[in-house]
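Retry 2 of 3 after timeout on previous attempt. Resubmitting structure tokens to design endpoint.
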């Protein structure tokens, strides 16, 4: 390198800058393919289904007449299923990640667990549906219910939450732990008061990815027996005669937005296809709203962190 002339060095720098420009151009083109594809699909849904969005569309049950059909049972079912999924997957996933990263001994058993957790993130969703059918529906006797669906999707996103949480914990500088230990904190105090608060923004990123995947899943929900047509809502707690219990809704039959869309797109009438496009718009808005809430919480927590 010392023998190179100034002209040769400049030529080398120019060549590398040229490759940087080429790579940046290819990257932008690849990005635009994905972005433009999404924009085109979303624009198609807007043009086909925007005129169907009305108050009646949200408060009516599905119907054999397209003009009277609504998504009440579908969006309520999706909301309740995602509630069960979040309540189950987030605490279990975070706790499992904390154990593996902070407490688990480094031996062959831990290595096997880590490999399997990572591999489970790539297992097809239909496999989780078959597992849930045998485990939750038949073995535990939960039936074809909201509880079975929520637990199925929780299993589906659990590896994603665990992996993302572990990466967030690993990103915390070691001086944080050393400072806490130097002041006499126990491992649990260090983890609960320092590691987890600093890791929450990264943890929420994994949760966002997992829940966004879960809300659009169809295969495992169909496998456990979700209904394609239902005209009743789960019983509200302490209503009806006799009054429903506080958790009776967990065992109610259900449908979700993706299955309702699948039902409508499988019909030959164009009006049902427009209903499916409108339902797709609602599903996109639900997903973006859920993600926006998590991003806002992540931003507020990150803003309050004092390193």
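Retry 2 succeeded. Sequence:
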């Amino acid at each position: 390198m010392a023998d190179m002339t100034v002209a040769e060095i400049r030529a080398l720098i120019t060549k590398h800058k040229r490759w940087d420009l080429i790579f940046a151009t290819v990257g932008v083109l690849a990005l635009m393919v994905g972005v433009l594809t999404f924009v085109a699909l979303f624009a198609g849904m807007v043009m086909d289904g925007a005129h169907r969005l009305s108050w009646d569309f949200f408060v009516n049950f599905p119907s054999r007449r397209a003009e009277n059909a609504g998504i009440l049972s579908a969006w309520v079912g999706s909301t309740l299923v995602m509630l069960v999924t979040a309540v189950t997957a987030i605490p279990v996933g975070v706790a499992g990640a904390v154990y593996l990263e902070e407490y688990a001994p480094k031996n062959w058993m831990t290595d096997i667990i880590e490999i399997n957790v990572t591999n489970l993130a790539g297992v097809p969703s239909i496999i989780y549906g078959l597992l849930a059918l045998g485990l939750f529906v038949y073995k535990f006797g939960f039936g074809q219910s909201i509880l079975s669906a929520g637990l199925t999707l929780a299993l589906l996103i659990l590896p994603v939450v665990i992996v993302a949480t572990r990466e967030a914990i690993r990103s915390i500088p070691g001086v944080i732990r050393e400072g806490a230990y130097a002041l006499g904190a126990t491992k649990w105090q260090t983890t609960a008061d320092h590691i987890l608060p600093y890791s929450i923004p990264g943890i929420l990123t994994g949760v966002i990815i997992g829940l966004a995947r879960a809300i659009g899943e169809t295969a495992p929900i169909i496998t456990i027996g979700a209904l394609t047509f239902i005209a009743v809502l789960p019983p509200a707690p302490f209503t009806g005669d006799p009054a429903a219990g506080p958790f009776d809704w967990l065992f109610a039959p259900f449908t979700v937005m993706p299955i309702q869309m699948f039902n409508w797109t499988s019909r030959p009438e164009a009006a049902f296809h427009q209903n499916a496009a409108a339902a797709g718009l609602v599903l996109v808005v639900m997903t973006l709203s859920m993600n926006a809430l998590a991003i806002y919480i992540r931003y507020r927590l990150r803003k309050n962190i004092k390193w």
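Attempt log closed. DSSP finds eleven helices and no strands in the chain.
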